[in-house]
Amino acid sequence: MPNKIILDTDPGIDDALAIILAINSPEIELMGITTTYGNVEIEKAVRNTFRVLNFLDHLDVPVYRGAYKPIIEEPHPIEAIHGSDGLGDVDIPAVDAELAGDAVEFMIEAVRRYPHEITIVSIGPLTNLALAMLMYPEFSNKVGKIISMGGAFGLTPYGYGNDTPVAEFNIYSDPEAARVVYDSGAEVYAVGLDVTNNPKAMISPEERERIRVEGGRIGKLFYEMTRRLAKLSHGVHLHDPIAVSHAIIREILSFKKYRVTVELEGRYTRGQTIVDRREELPEFLRGVPNIYVAYDVDGDAFKRLMWDRVFSR
Ligand code: RIB
Ligand code: CA
Fold this sequence. Notes:
Blueprint: E1 3-9, H1 13-23, E2 28-35, H2 42-55, E3 63-65, H3 79-82, E4 101-102, H4 103-113, E5 118-122, H5 127-135, H6 139-142, E6 145-149, H7 169-173, H8 175-182, E7 187-191, H9 193-196, H10 205-214, H11 217-225, H12 227-232, H13 239-245, E8 253-262, E9 273-276, E10 291-297, H14 299-311
Parallel strand pairs: 1-2, 1-5, 2-3, 3-4, 5-6, 6-7, 7-10
Antiparallel strand pairs: 8-9, 8-10
Helix pairs in contact: 1-13, 4-5, 5-8, 10-11
Residues 10, 12, 14-15, 38-39, 123-124, 149, 162, 168-170, 239-240 line the site of alpha-D-ribofuranose (RIB).
């Protein structure tokens, strides 16, 4: 039975690849795509979602507009990484398509209609999800699972920040939203930089060249979309597809439950995801674990999945 998924996204290059992975995976029933500000401002996130769906000839997937800004701060799009259009300035056409509605209302309606069956995969800031939880008290009890690409938990040598020295971009974009989601009581699986920056799961320059030569139409799109990214760092990190992979092949990621809180006040540490690792203490002396955090990734299995569902297509 395919997993009923809502993909909450801020496309973004790796978001686009995550959308393609989800659509090309029979293990997923994609109920809809909700959009959020993040890598780009909201209208560009909507536009890019339609561009990717049109490229796949899948404009049948309903798209919903979400938050245009975080709960407290202002959005800080990162054109330096994702290009001025948000998809690496790649030449795929924009398309006039109609939105299906409002993202938060759709999330609430889906969870009401299919209690305990919906997995929400959030690969951008958590604002939409937090708003759904704040608007519908039953949400965290009725949603199935939440998979969130976000955070830097210090569980591996790669688990430090990217937007700041200690904070990862999606969490740093809206730390208040992350605090709401982490403390909601829902079953949350956090996929942080600890695993998505692991070189085992990174596309090396040699692998990227092989994808250009031996890949299919989507492989070539990947190569074009990542021209800028490939110059900025040694390889291409596929943060969002790694998070989506947990809804396809559970064994690719390994998780452990921890007590995690999100720093909101620190001048230098706002958005840091802080893990209570004092496991030698009894739970009443330390925080009761609240979310599952990824601590390892099977890079070979992930790359096989990406080759089969994305790059070779
Ligand atoms: O830190 C990586 C995350 O921030 C990814 O979701 C990427 O798309 C950006 O949004
Ligand atoms: Ca993203």
